[in-house]
Structures are given as C-alpha cells and as structure tokens.
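subagent[fold] <- orchestrator: predict structure for attached chain, return tokens only, no commentary.
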Amino acid sequence: MKIRVWLTILFTLITAAILLVFASYIYISAKKSREREYYNLLTKEAVTKANLFLDANVDAKTLHTIYRNNRKILNEVEVAIYSTSFQLLYHDAAEIDFVKETRKMIDDIVKQREIHFYQSDWQVVGISYRFKNTNYVITAAGFDQYGYNKLASLRTNICIVFLISVLVIYFAGRFFVKKAFSPVTEITRKVNRISATNLDLRLDPRHSKDELSELSNTFNEMLDRLEDSFDAQKSFVANISHELRTPLSAIITELELSQNKERSLEAYKVVISQALSDARKLARLSNSLLDFAKASYDSSEIHFKEVRLDELLLDAQLQLQKTNPDYDIDILFEKEFDDDDLISVNGNAYLLQTAFVNLIENACKFSADRQCVVAISYQEKNVVLNFSDHGIGINDEDLPHIFNAFYRGLNQKIANGNGIGLSLTKKIVFLHKGSISVQTEQGKGTVFTVEIPHL
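subagent[fold] -> orchestrator:
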C-alpha cells in the first residue's frame, strides 16, 4: 500500500472517529434532555390534575371527559391519585391502568418522595403530594411521541450527515495528500533519471524550509559525495593500472630478453636482480594499496583499543632499520610523562604504525644523512609528534598536493615511491580524529606534525 493511500485512509478514519464521538455526544445529550424535560412535564401534569381534583373540586367525571377528549388529538398524560394507604381516589383511565400501581410502589413513593422509571417506552413519575396537611400519592405516565419523533429525526440526520462527511473527508484527504506528495512524485521521477553515467544531475533546489526541502538538499549532498567517490575511484583505478603496468612491463621485458639467447651466469643474475627489484616494487605497492583500503573503511568497522604511541614508534623504528640499516632514527621525549594516558590513544595499532613508518621513511629517503628525529610531546588534549629531517624540503608547487593519492612531485627523481604514503598517512590520522600539518624549507628540511587526542 502506498503511503498516500495509507495516509488518506488514516486521515479519514481518525476524522470519522472524531465525528462519530461528537455525533454520539450530541445524540446522547439530546436523548437525556428529552427524558428530563418529559419527566418535568409529567410532574407538572400530575400536580395540575391533583390541584383540579383536590383544590378546585372538579369532579372525576369532568376530568375523565377532558382526558378522553385530549387523547383524541394528542398523547394525554394518564394521572392517578392515591392516598398513602393505597386507596384509589382518582384515575384518568382505570380500565387501562397502564402503570398498574401496587402497594409496594406507593410505599416507595412515600418513602423516596419522588421516583422516575420506564414502563416499556412510557415514562412514569410518582410523587408524594401534600394538600391541607394530608399526604397523597400521584402517578403520571405518558408516551412522548413528539420527543421520540424528534430523536428519530435527529438520529437519521446524524447518520446521513456522518456518511456524507466521511465521503467528503475521504476525497478531500485524497486531494490534499496528492497535492502534498506531488513534490515527492517529482523527486521520484527525477531520481529515476539519475544513474552512474549521469551523476552530475541534481534535484531542483527548494527554497522552503519544509521536510521535502531537507530531503532534496540531503539527496543532492549524497549525490555530490557519490560523484566525488566515483571520480576518485576512476582516478584510483587509472593510477593503479599505471603503477602496476610499469613494473610488470619491466619484468616481462627483462625475462623475454633473457629468453631470446643464451647468456652468461652473471647476465642472468643481473636480469634476476632487476626482476626481483621490480617484484619488490609490486609487493610494496600491493601492501600500500591494502593499507589504503583499510584506512578507507568506516571507523566503526576498525578495531580500536588503548595503545601507547611511544611503543608504536619504537616498533616502526625497528621495522625500518631492519630493512634499511643506514637509516638513523632518533626518538626524543620533550616532556616527562607522569601519566601513561598522556601518550596513549584509542586507536588501531597496525594503522598507526603504518602511518609512522611512512613519515619516518620519507624523512630518511629525502635526506642526505638518512636521519629522522621524532619528538614526542603533549598538550591538554592531544599527543603531539614531530617528524623532522634535514633533507631537500618540498617545493612550493608540490606542497598543496602532497596528500593526494598517487601524486609524486619533483622529488621522485631523488627516491622511488608510489605516491600513496602521505595520502594513506593522512587518512589514518583522520580516522583517529587527529590532524597532520607540514612545515618545509627547501634545502633545509621538513617537519610533519601529527596531533592525536590522548586518553
């Protein structure tokens, strides 16, 4: 069931329920009002007949004549007058005696002073009436034909108006829901036109501040992110293809040349050494791409735990010096740490160590003395790490792009690389809610500063 149909039905049912409650209240109020008014009428008729009989001394025959004549044109009230000892003094129609008074009824009237009850659809009132120091009991019964007719007419009108109102509400609800959902229909129509080949299409901006405007704006923002992601993916795939093609082509060429003719043992060793070097480049590129993919995960999917940054730096130092014995890596503590929490963060040890390895390796690669100094300090909320070298520095043209994936500036002539290291490092630092900045001066060196919130 579509939302617009469901809303129309729900709106109709709720409004119909409110109307039904309101109509029921009106009908019940009218019914009770009719009942109350007719009991009052019966009481007045009973007192009037009693005054005519007891005070005006109108004889019973005359009263009977009046009663019979009135019954021909209207529903006359039937009145009976009794003594408290259950002696019948007067009755409008003793032969009918609709009420059929009993001694118990008379005693109840004397005791309660006044009673009301129904006899079928007839209403009956019994009152204790005092005249000249003598108590009498009067009963009056009548059928409120006029009142019942009014109630029946009211009930019919309520039912007709209720049904008509429900129909009007239903069709009005359909109209307004359709009008309210027309922007949604338009959004759906335009969204169906958007695919991977035309992600540049956008929904028309709405200048109102309603929920549909928020939906359109949010969807446009999502399309912006998707378009950026697709563009980045295309660029990523293109760069990977280029990076993989170069060492693979070199390996294939070297092996084909060595296969064409017999060579000396030394020549084969040279070919194998060159192929091995290219294979290592591929291995490093693969490892970098895997690390890049891990750093691109949603942070909720990466396992975080309490880790000490000084221990990760020592592990990074050992890892690099094992493969590059000529690297000179110094780790300095600029402040004393009385509390381990000041150098501990909530993070992923593998990713953080990968970031530190990249920064230290870059510092050593682009320095003539192959030296990197890592200074550890802390602030009120962050651990601060400075990776400094006395290398060639970064020129102004390359500086804005050093954190872009696969970007390699003029320094690539000095040392090999695949352009992933710094972009990967930035992703890892951001995953840990940290920041990274760089200060450089050509010919004098570079300092990368990493700040990560401590525990």
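orchestrator: received. Logging for downstream: The longest helix spans residues 3-55. The mean pLDDT is 84.
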